Amino acid sequence: MFKYLYRLPSASVLFSTTKKLTTVCSNPSFSFSIKLCNLRKNKSNFGALFIPKDIQVRVVSLLNIRSMSKSVDSSSDMELVITENKNHELLTAAYDNYGGVTVEVKDPLDSEIFLSLHKASIKEWTQKGKKGVWIKLPIEHVNLVEAAVKEGFWYHHAEPTYLMLVYWIPETVNTLPLNATHRVGIGAFVMSDEGKVLVVQEKSGKLRGSGVWKYPTGVVDEGEDICTAAVREVKEETGVCISIDSEFVEVLAFRQSHKAFFEKSDLFFVCMMRPLSFDIEKQDHEIEAAQWMSFEEYAAQPFIQKSDMFKNIVEICLKKKGSGYYSGLSPVSTKSSFSNRESFLYLNKRDLNRTSNDNEP
């Protein structure tokens, strides 16, 4: 069991010994050991050992050494084992079903050792026909980023606690999946049976100070379902609490736009909600005002009338409010054939459940 591991690119190690060194092997791929025992202070001679490039130095015994370039302390026992990183030292990795390799660095690693392990690993993975390499670097291992980039890795994405880098092994077109390209947002259209709509005025954003009344909007959190996000956003629009309980009804429509936040595309789902309570208790952090407004007054606002998207939403809600002819998409719980996790399929339940007799005149 090796106590320390060093990789020295073509360097000389000075050591203290009373024995004469002899050449063990002229081939750079070699392995031998030097034992220094029972050294006496001031009675040791100095020698130099040349370490060929890409050779690793392992210190087997627990040493009292200030530096590899200084003499050994008088009472130390020392054994150096010098080996080439040829067959055994590889980066710990997991293989996926698409010819990819995932490496998650968990323990502290010197950048020089990382490079040595990386080169040996790439050779191994190339022989096995692997293609893409994913390296997950926690934020505490930032020292390896420069070394990885110089070896051909590039940034894929970053999260608060780690950076994901990727590398493509074969000399073919890179087919690695891109980073997430869309952000998902919701608009919660909460309308009572009497035709009242829950609307707010914001303290920030493009509509700040404009006097425009809008329905609550927000961003879907990671791992959150659209129907759950809509209920949450009614109560806390970007951290603002409005004490209105509501029930998700359906997705009325959705819009896709491009080059929005951080140059990403945007999916915005307009959701119909049913209120379960009506008392408003707003917080003042980001919401200027909140109230119930008649649907007709909301729709008559100049800002709404000038917007193609909002005018279409008004038309949809008029259909729902009047004849109820328009049917949106309601969530149905499903499970994927690839996992046992629950997800939601949004579909037109009314038409799905309609029988042939319903179409008869």
From TrEMBL:
InterPro entries: NUDIX_hydrolase-like_dom_sf, Nudix_hydrolase6-like, NUDIX_hydrolase_CS, NUDIX_hydrolase_dom, Pre-Nudix. Residues 181-317 form the Nudix hydrolase domain. It holds the Pfam family Nudix_hydro. Keywords: Hydrolase, Metal-binding. It comes from the Eukaryota. GO terms for molecular function: ADP-ribose diphosphatase activity; metal ion binding; NAD binding; NADH pyrophosphatase activity. PANTHER family: NUDIX HYDROLASE 2, NUDIX HYDROLASE RELATED. Belongs to the Nudix hydrolase family. This is Nudix hydrolase domain-containing protein. It comes from Papaver somniferum (Opium poppy).
